[in-house]
Amino acid sequence: MLEERDGLELVSEEVKSTDAGVRLDVYLAQVLGVGRRQAKAALSEARVALNGRLEKRGSRLVETGQKVELLRPPLDLVPEPGAPLHILLETPALVVLNKPAGQPTAPLSTLEKGSLAGALLGRYPEMRDVGHAKREPGLLHRLDSATSGVVLAARTREAFAALQARHEQDAITKWYLAWVSGSPEEPRGSIQTQLGPDPRRSREVAVGGNYDATTGYEVLERSTNSSGEVSLVSLWVHRAYRHQVRVHMAHIGCPLLGDEMYAPPEVTALAPRLALHAVRIKVSGAAPYALDVKAPVPPELESLGA
Known about the structure:
- By secondary structure, the chain is of the alpha+beta class.
- Helix content is 17%, strand content 31%.
- It has helices spanning 24-30, 36-44, 116-123, 157-168, 244-251, 265-268, 299-302; strands at 9-14, 48-50, 53-54, 67-72, 87-90, 94-99, 148-154, 172-181, 188-197, 205-207, 211-225, 228-237, 276-283, 291-294.
- It is globular and about 65 Å long.
């Protein structure tokens, strides 16, 4: 059992189903907010416990419901007053942002600047103690750095709890636009698989894990150019595993243009960035948390056609 020591804080987290099957060192980095080098040091220095027992194996896979504890130097988020925020909706309870491509949703270290979280805290200091972690103030979900579009954040603890409850009830729906190579066989349908960490590549996700993932889709447009068929696809999810829509589209043979992880090089080269935009978010239910907000499509994606 770990106990706090001078200069170190004790943080703990229960492993969610969306993180089950991840290596422990990756979990420490992605969920508890330490770099891979710091995670390795913490494991070797007996500063990590799994279900109350010290654990030194970073390769061990975490399971749903396990308690992960970490002793680490205090990790805080540096607020960035005046940093640009593209606000789509603002109420006393919540805020919806349009995150640009290339911006991290949350930082991986205390001194990292330029994240959406840092800009949020600079504008809404009351969000410092809202949410699951200090580096993610009020954030109900995250987007990959390369993905643009809508992000929902709560401004109060009450709002965070209420929105989290609606998320668990599948009362929050997120829509994406994706420009993909080829086209699904059916013009409308759903992709249902189990997902989990790719055992061969630590940063990637693969079909065949233990998280049940469903992505709805509809083909909006198709076109043919010198590189072959390109389709504009609308996708929607209630809950999303990391990289879910990217993995699902690649799984059915329609990888996203510009995707450096899941598309072949010739498809990656067809777009200046990952061709994925979180275009809309809807929260069903009663006020003051109900909303339906859209984010305009960035020009560099509109120009892709399809």
